[in-house]
Amino acid sequence: MKKEGKQRKPGGQPGHRGAGRSLLAESEMKDIVDHYPEECSGCGREFTDSEKVPRFGAGRHQVAELPPTAVFYVEHRTQRLRCPCGKRTRGTLGTVGESPFGPLLQAAVVALTARNRISRRDLSELSGELFGVGISVGAIDAICQRASGLLAGPHERLTRQVLASGAINVDETGWYLAGENRTMWTASSAQAAIFRIVENRHQDRLQELIGDFSGIVTSDRWWAYDLLDAEQRQACWSHLQRDFRSHSEGLDAQQQFGTAGLALTRRLFETWHAYQEHGDRDRLIAEMTPVQNELRELLEHAATKTKRHRLHRRFANNLLKLWPALWTFTTVPGVTPTNNAAERSLRGPVIHRKLSHGNQSDAGERFTERSLSASVTCRLQHRSLLTYLRELFTAHQTGGALPALL
Q1: I need a labelling partner for 272 at 20 to 30 A (CA). Which of 2, 286, 329, 336 fits?
Q2: pTM of the model
Q3: Cβ atoms of residues 356 and 123 within 8 Å
Q4: Listed residue (172, 261, 269) closest to 223, CA to CA
């Protein structure tokens, strides 16, 4: 059965704002190359060299290019001096540190690993071809573990800050540790996201993630979230929409139930999107009331114990049990009717899991948790991950305070 609503075609939609490249100032150009016509496009006469001089109104086309070698080397020499007392003393590297790689190069390695999901071996090859520097697989892993240690403090502070917010989105997905099944959890706010890899998807793991969090948790209807009171939850309406669609593809009473539920879901999202424009919460509540009343009537009818309702009665009873969690978004600022924020946070890690098959060690899991938290948080803040990691390595090298993620 075709999904309800108009289906969008891939790519840019009609009327969307373009994202063309703007020309940079001449002062930012490494070089300016003038191109002159060789002959007249009308009569064919050849232009002389004296005629080929810059004039007003030249066409401008700018080309960005990488230098042949992106890495430069600096040799640091620890000189030895002899005191009149006879003692020889050698200078120290000081803030340079013992690593043969600078802060920006280490930051690039971690960013390419964490955000762009490039394997250690592929990155070893890429560093030679793109940067012009040889970095072994072991050295790349050492850089990642160094970053993991540096991110431990900022990640811990970020966790406290996320759990101090009034509302979070929580979700989980599968993960692997040396081929064994694990679970990756995420908790996201508007400005940050944290990740944790643990044994399973059970309630005690959720408790470990959120602790004594007292705000609103938006999630799907996985049984582990029953740990929370319905008044502290917001059920994801995108998941409910898929459930109603599944029932609408059934027969007889089940199909009628699913079709009616889909129509109400469509009205709910239309009302919510209208609220995003006008911002009047009293109007949102008033316009949502008829949807609530009609859905309640639909669910109570479907929950009756008859043979005709056997295929969708359990679903209806579950929604009645969660009834307050269906409408938290109408009254609590900062809460949305979907769990899209958490699902977007997990999109990259899911791809990473399929490419890498998870981690091979506990240390690898800690790096994954901390680097993904930094990556997604920087993206949510429209902040450069590379710049943040460079500041992190630089602060460690100079003994300064490590930069915060939020």
Answers
A1: 2
A2: 0.83
A3: no
A4: 172
Taking the C-alpha atoms of residue 71 and residue 133, their distance in angstroms, rounded to an integer, is 7
- Distance between CA atoms of residues 184 and 383, nearest Å: 24
Query: Is the separation of the CB atoms in 336 and 218 below 8 Å?
Result: yes
Q: CA–CA separation, 359 vs 175, rounded Å?
A: 8
Instruction: Please provide the size of the chain in residues.
Output: 406
Residue with tokens 């042949």: 68
Provide the residue type at 176 as one letter. Answer: Y
Which residues are within 8 A (CB) of 20 and not within 5 positions of it... i.e. 6 or more apart? none
Exposure on the CB side of residue 240, measured as CA atoms within 13 A: 31
Spatial separation of the C-alpha atoms in residues 375 and 406, rounded to whole Å: 12
- β 233-235/180-188 pair status: unpaired
The answer to whether 175 touches 347, Cβ cutoff 8 Å, is no
The closest alpha carbon to 376, from 402, 341, 400, 351, belongs to 341
Quote the pLDDT of residue 75: 84
Residue type, 49: D
Do 300 and 206 form a contact (C-beta atoms < 8 A)?
no
One-letter identity of residue 242: R
Tally of CA atoms within 13 A in the half-sphere of 168 that contains its CB: 25
Strands 193-198 and 180-188: antiparallel
* Per-residue confidence (pLDDT) for residue 5, from 0 to 100: 54
Give the C-alpha separation, 208 to 325, whole Å.
22
Alpha helices in 225-280 (DSSP H): 237-248, 252-278
CA distance linking residue 359 with residue 299, whole number of Å: 44
User: Which residues make beta-bridge pairs with 181?
Assistant: 176
Residue type at position 192: A
Alpha helices, DSSP H, located in 18-136: 103-114, 120-126
